[in-house]
Amino acid sequence: MNEITLAELKNWSRDSYELIDIRDDGLVAYGMLPGALHIPEEQLTDAKCPGIEEIEADKKLVFYCEIGRRTRELEDIECLEGRECYSLEGGYVGYIRSGLMDEEAIKEKQQKAEKSIQKRFHKQLFSPFAKACKNYQLINEGDHIAVCISGGKDSMLMAKLFQEIQRHRKVNFDLTFLVMDPGYNQANRELIESNARALGIPITIFESNIFDTVDTIEKSPCYLCARMRRGYLYSKAKELGCNKIALGHHYDDVIETILMGMLYGAQIQTMMPKLHSTNFEGMELIRPLYLVRESDIIAWRDYNELHFLQCACHFTDTCTTCHEDGTTSSKRLETKKLIAELKKENPFVESNIFNSVENVNLDTVICYKQKGVRHNFLDEY
Questions:
Q1: Rounded to two decimals, what is the model's pTM?
Q2: Alpha-carbon gap, residue 288 to 355, rounded angstroms
C-alpha cells in the first residue's frame, strides 16, 4: 500500500478522504487521530466490511496503525478493491510526535495539566490518590521514592500527583522520576522525553538491553520483559538511594487481576497496594493509583489533549500492555469487556470485585496459602 505523510495529508481537503484506525480496542483506548473511524484490522478481512461499505466510493481511504508498519502490509483485501488507499507514514506515534511544542506551548500545557488536577479533577484523581497513600501507608517520613515512568498515561499522571502531594508538605520525602529505556527506538524515546518536558517532570533516564534479550524469546516474551524491567528498576532505584519504587497500576487493573486470577489462574489473589521486594533488601513496591479509576485518568488525558504511548515494544505494535502475571493483553481486554457487561445489570459489580478480597472468610475457604504454607480446612475440622 502506498504511503502518505502527515504533511502531504494536510494539503488534501478533509472532505476528500476518510481516516481509518485499524488498531485493536486496547490501543484505541489510548487515543485516536481526530475524526478517525475505528475499523479493526480483522474486520477488513470480511468481503462485505460494513465500515468500508458505508464510506462514499469516491473518498480516498487513509489507514493508520500504531507505527505505520501493519498498514503498509495491507494487501489483497477484497473489500478494498477499486478503492484509492493509503498508509499513513509513522502511524499514530508519528502523529503524536508531529505535535512537539515550543517552550511557550510547553509552559501552557504544564500549567493546564496541574490546574486540572487541583481543580477540575481533584475529586476524581487527587483525592483517591491521597486516600490510598494514607490508608495503605504508602508514603512515610524520609522516604526516597523512585516514580517509575513507562511513558503511558498512568505513570505520567502518577508523577504529577506525586508532585502535587509533595507540594502540600505534610510528609517530607524525596522523589526521583525514573525512566528505563529498554531499547526504545529514537521516535518512542523522544516522545517520552517531550511529554515529560511538557508536563514539567524532571526525568532520570537509564538504559538497558531488555528488548534485545527478549526479542528472540517465542514463549511469553511480555512476561519475561515485565519481570526483567522490574528487576532493573529496583536495582537502579536502590543505586540512586531510593527505598521504594512506585508503579502506575490503577483500580481497574486491580479488579481485572482479581477476576483473571479466578477465571484463568484458578486462584483468588489481588494486586497488592504495597509489598516488600524479595530480591532487593529494604526495597518496597507501592501502587498509589490503587483507588483511581481508569476512566478518570482518560478524562484527564483527553481534557489536557495529551497523547501517550501504551506499549513501546520495538518488535510489535499490537501489544497493548505487559503483565508480569503472564496474562496476555487479549485476556485482560476480555476481562475488561466482561466487567463492563456485568455492570449493565449490576452497577456495583466493580466495587464488589474490589471489596471481595477485603472480606475473605477463612471459615468458608477449603484451602489457602500463607507465607508459602498450604492450609486445609480439615486441619482444624
A1: 0.78
A2: 17
